[in-house]
Structures are given as C-alpha cells and as structure tokens.
Design a protein that fits this description.
The protein is an alpha+beta fold. It is built from three helices and 17 strands. It folds into two domains: 52 residues, no CATH class; 148 residues, Distorted Sandwich (Glucose Permease (Domain IIA)). The strands form four sheets. The protein has an eight-stranded antiparallel β-sheet, with no helix packed on it. It is found in: Cytoplasm.
Length: 207
Amino acid sequence: MIKLFNFCFITQQISFFYAIHLIYPFNNHSLFYNKNGIIIDIGKKGNNYMKFTLFKKAKTSVLTCADGKVVPITEVSDPVFAQKMMGDGFAVIPTGNTIYSPVSGKISMIFDTNHAFGLTMSNGLEVLVHIGIDTVNEKGEGFKRLAAINDTVKAGDPIIGIDLEALKAKGYDMAVMVIFTNDKYSELTLMEGDHQAKEEAATIQLA
C-alpha cells in the first residue's frame, strides 16, 4: 500500500511538473520545492522574478460586533481611524446594547473605562475594538464589562454591554471600530450594509 501511494504521488508530481512547463517555459521560470520535495511555488527567473503560492491559507470570517450597519472605516468621523493611522478595518453603527467579539482569540487588554478592548488571534493578528468616539471621557459610565483580560473567547462571545441610548443622548458618535493593528493579514473584504450581531461582516486572508 505504501509503495502504491509513493508511486501515485511521484506520478502526480511528474505530471504536475510537465503541465506547469507547458504554461511556464523552462528557460523563463523556476519551480520551488519544500523540504519534502513537493512543488509549492513557481517563479520567474531574472530581475523580473515573481513568486506566488499555490496553496493559500483559507480566509477567516470576521463577525459583526453588534446589531447595526457595517460601513468602511474611511466613513467614520474620527480622522485617526478614518485615515487608517491605527490600521485598516471597518465600523459598525450599532443599534443594540451588546458588543461581541468579532474574532476568536485571547482578550489582550480592556481599557479601564471599558470603551475599547484588544484581541489576539492564534496566528498573532491583533484586533482593536473601539466603542464610540471620545467615549473615553465618560470614564466607564454607560459601559459594563462582560468578560475579563486573558479570557479566551470565540467569535460572537459578548465582551462589553453599553447603554446605547444614554450615550447617544449625550451627543456621542457611537460607531464601533474594528481595527486590525498589525500585518498578520494580507487582504480584507467587507460586506457593507445592515447586519444582525454575529453575522459575517468581513473576511480576511491571514498572512
């Protein structure tokens, strides 16, 4: 059985090798192998070398962190977020009183005022969830912590409760920003529009 498997695998690799070179001529391209001898990349020789990965990581869903409308981060009123100074992401204009974790990971920090929290995913991607603009000035009033620092949470778990109407009555813009603050991803696709909490709001290609 093992010999048959090895024979089939070698035959597959040889077939793949020649199929690739029907598209990418020998004199212009190189094949790249992993430590087990499996073809994983094709690159162009010379100064115009280009490399692409044949086996990309699957995209990961990012959930809506509250009931409400998903909008591009560039539409929020705070230029620090809108100009992506802290990273790319999106915002939710909330209609509900619970803020949920948009991804699975570990809660790395929660501000004392409970208006923002950070998550670290298993691949190292860091996510900041910031509830409202200038709401730090409330010093925690209108916010209730539902989880703790260092908790391991799943996407959709409740993290912070808010008194949405009371905060809006004080004049606060209550957009909830979801920001990816480091480079552990390579692509963000957004699903704009009205969503229920815990529905898919975006997908990310993990790096």
